[in-house]
Amino acid sequence: MPTTQVSAFVITAALLVPVFLASAFKNFNVSYVVWSRRNWKPADGTRSDSKTAPSYSKLRIWFHKLCLTGVPQLTALTGMGLSEMIQLTIFVGTNLIFVVVPTPFVQSEVYGMLNIGRRAAWVGTGLGFFILLTATRNSILETVTGIPFDRMVMYHRWSGYVLYLHMALHSVTELQNWDRQGTMWQQITNTKRLLNLYGTLSFLFMVVFVAFSHSLFRRRFFNLFYYCHFAFVGYTVFGGLHWDEYALFSAAGMLFYFFDRIIRFVRSRQSCTVVSLKHFSSANMVRVVLRAPRFSYHAGQYAFINVTGLSLLAWHPFSMTSAPDPLGRSEEEYVTLHIKNVGDWSKKLVESVQEAGKDAAKTVRMSIDGGHGRPALDFTTFPVALFVSGGVGVTPMLAVLQSLIKRAECGLPTSNKKLYFFWYIRISSTLPAFAEELSAVQDAAGRLRGVLDVVMRVFVTADDEGEWRRSLVKEDEMKGGVVRTPYELLEEGKPEVGKLFSEVKAAHPSDDVAVGVCGPQSMVNDTRSAAAANSDRSGLFSVHWESFEL
Ligand SMILES: Cc1cc2nc3c(=O)[nH]c(=O)nc-3n(C[C@H](O)[C@H](O)[C@H](O)COP(=O)(O)OP(=O)(O)OC[C@H]3O[C@@H](n4cnc5c(N)ncnc54)[C@H](O)[C@@H]3O)c2cc1C
After folding, report:
1. 257 and 358 within one domain
2. Of 182, 349, 422, 432, which is least packed with CB atoms within 10 Å of its CB?
3. C-alpha R_g of the chain
4. Residue 313: C-alpha distances to residues 201, 223, 286, 307, 513 (Å)
């Protein structure tokens, strides 16, 4: 194999280091907590129910806290924890080393800045492969590392921006060189040797998809971001024409990408029946129940949904609110989703459900691709599990809560003794959309009394003038209705997450606690801080966090 190809392989392998480090660290961390708990023996050699957790070393606690909160100011600014910051530093550092330090892997016959620019293009070749690999939903990288697609997107984003810097450096140094020679225009427009024209076009395509990837577009004009991203095809094709080594590596990445596309296509063709589709106007949300014969998923996962009548191409991610049967008894899975009306696509969905009225389930056709992602913690191995969520962020948390309860009901092995569910909603009228799930949890909790304790609290944070209290009266009057909305769970106000955690810590001073959080970034940050503050030698609060932003 030519040395040029070896070098690109070495670079690609080096770029993967942060991903594998993250995976190794995550697995070590989880295994360490489980192992410590299994092997813990109290100082007096006896075991008592009141103390089942290990005594952690000071170093372990310090590291745990550091990983959770990192550098608070930087976390608030970047939304990254310490481990992400370390990974980013390694990633950028690896890139810099290959660009700046003359290594035997990246050789060029030119010198000075031009040489550095060419090396940057080399490293970009490795990145081209990495970018495509991290853009696949059904990814071999996910299988090997256990890092789900929604987290992998972070690496995709990093590599995109770093690739842009590499290619910009390469372009600028080449342009500078031609300028010095006074041949800039001839070089670009040389019709006999089109390589430079291809390179220029490739870079221009890149500018388009990088510019529209900015959160400004990604969060506000998702479709614009999404369709502009396909400029990557132009970038790759012209990049390949510009330099055959690039073609080789991006072709390898493309192979994974197309493989993923084929899997997605095949999956999306599998039939799925809409069983029920209900619009909850007060919650501004649609609740969907699907029956998908060959669909399998785990609690806390999400799926991509396509509504054929709205758009053939648009697939939107939604966490499943339901949890599968832990014994796999049903032949076909029923999947529940809650879709909040936040933008163009979800608005159109709401309108079509309203238009179809009672026939909505018969007229709206959906396809499902999943399940993707998975909670980073195994909640069944902790004596205490605590779920914090805000608004529609409740969906994955409710799914995991239900799965833990179902496990306990089936008598499957679990370390869970107590489950806490804290949900913040702005207005009480969000509750009816989740009435079925919440009532089911309440009923199961009643049956499990003495085996598994479940505490559920729902906080109404905006003043809705006691609307729910009136609803509570109405509900009481209509007892015996189809599904009861558990308004009695509601409490007014917005208690600090830290205060709730202190209460949990006081109730379980020596237990490890698994925390799941999904909601706005500020809620995730508060939860991580509260978990760090309440972790001590006798018990750690480990956190799995999610936010609905890719
Ligand atoms: C892992 C995950 C799980 C989610 N689970 C739920 C859920 O259970 N319930 C729920 O109501 N919402 C959930 N969301 C959010 C949901 O995907 C978006 O609200 C929805 O796609 C909005 O599309 P829109 O066109 O109506 O709104 P837009 O105004 O186009 O977008 C609103 C927001 O959604 C993002 N978004 C839009 N389209 C997509 C897409 N195709 N892929 C990723 N993000 C997109 C945008 O960046 C923006 O931040 C989840 C998102 C993710 C990433």
Report:
1. no
2. 182
3. 26
4. 27, 11, 21, 9, 42
Q: Which residues contact 516 (CB under 8 A, 6 or more apart)?
A: 300, 375, 377, 379, 385, 386, 387, 388, 396, 397, 400, 543, 544, 545, 546
Q: What percent of the chain has pLDDT over 90?
A: 36
Nearest residue by C-alpha to atom 44 in ligand 1: 550
| Atom 17 of ligand 1, residue of closest alpha carbon | 317
Q: Verify whether ligand 1 is closer than 6 Å to residue 242 (CB atom).
A: no
Kind plus residue range of the DSSP H or E element containing 418: strand 418-425
| Tens-digit pLDDT profile for residues 414-428 | 889 999 999 999 988
Does 280 sit in the ligand 1 pocket, CB within 6 Å?
A: no
Report which protein residue has its CA nearest ligand 1's atom 25.
345
In terms of domains, do 210 and 285 share one? no
Q: How far is CA 409 from the centre of its chain?
A: 29
Which residue, by CA, sits nearest to atom 5 of ligand 1? Answer: 318
Domain boundary among 334, 357, 372: 372
- Pocket test of ligand 1: the residue of 548, 549, 550 to mutate, having most ligand atoms within 8 Å of its CB, is 548
| 79 and 211 within one domain | yes
> Closest Cα to atom 21, ligand 1: which residue?
316
Is the distance from the beta carbon of residue 222 to the nearest atom of ligand 1 less than 6 Å?
Answer: yes
Confidence of residue 548 (pLDDT cuts 50, 70, 90): confident
Straight-line distance from the first to the last Cα atom of the chain, in angstroms, rounded to the nearest whole number = 38
Residues 288 and 258 in one domain: no
pLDDT winner (highest mean) among 1-5, 154-158, 374-378, 441-445: 441-445
Give yes or no: residues 496 and 456 share one domain: yes
478 lies in which domain range? 379-546
| 418 lies in the same domain as 530 | yes
Give me the CATH number covering residue 400. Answer: 3.40.50.80
From CA 25, how far away is CA 15, in angstroms rounded?
17
Q: Is 346 in the pocket of ligand 1 (CB under 6 A)?
A: yes
ipTM of the complex: 0.94
pLDDT grade, residue 47 (50/70/90)?
A: very low
In the 3-class helix/strand/coil scheme, how is 464-480 assigned residue by residue? Answer: CCCHHHHHHHHHHHCCC
Among 326, 357, 372, identify where a domain stops: 372
Q: How many domains does the chain have?
A: 3
Residues 84 and 206 grouped into a single domain? yes
- Which of 157, 222, 302, 400, when mutated, tests ligand 1's pocket best, judged by the most ligand atoms within 8 Å of its CB? 222
Which of 8-17, 203-212, 309-318 is modeled with the greatest confidence?
Answer: 203-212
